Amino acid sequence: MTGWIIPPPKKPTKTREQFAIERTEKVRQLIRKGYLKSKRIREAMLKVPREDFIPDNYSDYAYLEVPLPLPGEQATISCPHSYPLFYEPLGLGQGHRFFEIGLGSGYGTALAREIVGSEGLVIAMEFDPLTFEFATRNLRNAGYTDIILIRGDGGLGYPRFAPYDRICLTAACPEIPPPLVEQLRTGGRLIAPVIERGTQNLVLLKKTEEGVRREIICEVLYVSLRGRYGKDEGAF
Predict the structure, then answer these.
(1) Range of the structural domain that residue 213 is part of
(2) pLDDT tens-digit profile of 7-58?
(3) Verdict on whether the full-model pTM lies above 0.90
(4) Which H or E run contains 206?
(5) Cα(70)–Cα(118) distance, integer angstroms
(6) Count of C-beta atoms within a 10 Å radius of residue 99
(7) Which of 131, 143, 112 is nearest to 171 (CA)?
């Protein structure tokens, strides 16, 4: 949470109508600032009510550009701009088989499900049991019953549904876990925050027949990956 000022918890007061207005304005802001370009990502962000994926005592802040606390160890829902920041360079689109490491609140998972559509598949993995339970409940309540949710060490990947067209890692790691690169389809893309000389860089990998190409998008600030390939190595 370092680097962000988190607003204090409060009793929710906003109506569905107020949230809908804020959601539309947030999408317009993200378009103006150049974060949001894809029609499918734009439509997903207009459709999915972010406020339904946030604990009640923080839900009034749903469309502020701050991360908000979630159940679980150091768990947060990322700022609204973070989702197109990841999904646009990833080129997430219709029909993709998408693997997400780090469920958070389930909001990004819901967006991804809308983006890939009925022809695609979303598989999401979470390390923390409390965060997993919270996200799972949010997604089920929102009607997303065809997303495959797994509690486990995301750095190890999930070979059962590999290879993946797109992989998104939403926690910072010292290196991109090799199992994830192995499970990425040739022609696929992977995005992750990588810790390099004390700085977190959002890194995009493109897997080609000739090898893996690497591109730095920007600096970011995310909680650390847990598990075998995390900053502090630990077993699941």
Answers:
(1) 16-219
(2) 999 999 999 999 999 999 999 999 999 999 999 999 999 999 999 999 999 9
(3) yes
(4) strand 199-208
(5) 29
(6) 30
(7) 131
Say how far apart CA 204 and CA 161 lie, in whole Å: 21
Asked if residue 59 is part of any domain, the answer here is yes
- Overall average pLDDT of the 94-117 stretch: 97
Work out how many domains the chain is built from and give that number: 1
How far is 74 from 84, CA to CA, in rounded Å? 22
Helices (H), ranges, the chain:
16-32, 39-47, 82-90, 107-116, 129-141, 178-182
Residue pair 177/227 in contact (Cβ under 8 Å)? The answer is no
Taken as a whole, the chain contains a residue count of 236
State the Cα–Cα distance between residues 43 and 49, nearest whole angstrom.
Answer: 12
> Taking Cα atoms as reference points, which of 73, 130, 141 lies closest to residue 107?
141
Q: Confirm whether 37 is domain-assigned.
A: yes
pLDDT of amino acid 1: 40
Integer Cα distance of 79 and 144 in angstroms: 22
Angstrom distances, CA of residue 57 to CA of 9, 76, 110: 5, 14, 21
Residue 230 lies in a domain: no
Residue from 59, 78, 82, 105 carrying the catalytic annotation? 78
Peptide bond into 163 cis (omega under 30): yes
pLDDT at 5: 84
Residue 29 covered by a domain: yes
Residue 73, pLDDT > 50, answer yes
- What is the gyration radius of the CA atoms in the chain, in angstroms? 17
Q: What is the CATH number of the domain that holds 113?
A: 3.40.50.150
**Which letter does DSSP use for residue 225 in this model?**
P
Catalytic residue flag (residue 105): no
